[in-house]
Amino acid sequence: MSVQWRKSTHSGGADDQHCVELGRLAPEAGIGLRDSKDPDGGHLVLSGGQFAGLIEKIKQGSAR
Length: 64
Description:
single chain, four-stranded antiparallel sheet, about 20% helix, about 25% strand, flat
């Protein structure tokens, strides 16, 4: 199964330097996050729960 990556709508910055892509990995394998400028550089894998927690922290402005 090929991962369909999509660029986050919140990516951007000066010269589009902050680019994040998300992709649903194989069933039950989680969510992949990668730098869209380096698609062959690997990706971070988060479970569905971890991803939901990350999104909540971002919305609260406390993801660091």
